């Protein structure tokens, strides 16, 4: 088997396992009745706003690969759920600045505690070095994929 084929098979397994872990994590998150439920689009939008507070809708749309109409719908839903606040941009009052709300911060903290409990219990056999390597690989892939959308 050639190196390219072996590498392709590793990517397939990586994607499959990431999806399997993601399903397990998501199932656990919603076991907490106080977690605000978000759909996949809302999660992507919220993640970007959490990482870039004060960003504008155009930046969000570009980063997550959404049409403006779909982004508008997601933002309205997030505002209705109390997760996003839309403010006037301090540098240009014609534009909006998007910020996560205290409710969003509380929701994220609740999710993170759930993730730590789930993955910490399941990952007792994972060394600190392997955990760091896994995080670095996923961070590199996430950054490279995000750069392709920009």
Structure, described:
By secondary structure, the chain is mainly α. The protein has one domain: Arc Repressor Mutant, subunit A. It has helices at 3-29, 40-51, 57-64, 68-80, 102-122, 128-149; strands at 84-88, 96-100. It has a two-stranded antiparallel sheet. α2 (40-51) crosses α3. The longest helix is centred in the first third of the chain and has 27 residues, at 3-29. The protein is globular and about 55 Å long. The two termini are 35 Å apart. The relative contact order is 0.11. The mean pLDDT is 89.
| Strand element count | 2
What is the makeup of the main sheet? 2 strands, antiparallel
Shape designation: globular
The name of the CATH topology is Arc Repressor Mutant, subunit A
**How many separate structural domains?**
1
The strands making up the biggest β-sheet line up spatially as 1-2
Q: Any idea what the CATH architecture is?
A: Orthogonal Bundle
On the 0 to 100 scale, the average pLDDT is 89
Strand share of the residues?
5-15%
Q: Could you tell me how far the N terminus lies from the C terminus, measured between alpha carbons in angstroms?
A: 35 Å
Pfam family, one: MarR
Organism: Mycolicibacterium komossense
InterPro entries: HTH_MarR-typ, MarR/SlyA-like, WH-like_DNA-bd_sf, WH_DNA-bd_sf
Protein name: MarR family transcriptional regulator
């Amino acid at each position: 088997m050639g190196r390219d084929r072996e590498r392709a098979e590793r990517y397939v397994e990586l994607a499959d396992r990431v999806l399997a872990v993601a399903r397990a994590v998501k199932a656990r998150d919603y076991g907490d009745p106080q977690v605000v439920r978000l759909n996949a689009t809302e999660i992507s939008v919220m993640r970007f706003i959490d990482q870039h507070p004060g960003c504008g809708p155009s930046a969000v749309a570009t980063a997550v690969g959404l049409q403006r109409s779909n982004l508008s719908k997601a933002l309205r839903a997030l505002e209705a759920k109390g997760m996003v606040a839309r403010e006037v941009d301090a540098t240009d009052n014609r534009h909006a600045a998007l910020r996560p709300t205290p409710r969003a911060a509380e929701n994220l903290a609740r999710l993170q505690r759930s993730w730590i409990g789930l993955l910490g219990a399941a990952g007792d056999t994972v060394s600190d070095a392997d955990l760091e390597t896994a995080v670095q690989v996923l961070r590199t892939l996430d950054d490279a994929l995000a750069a392709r959308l920009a």
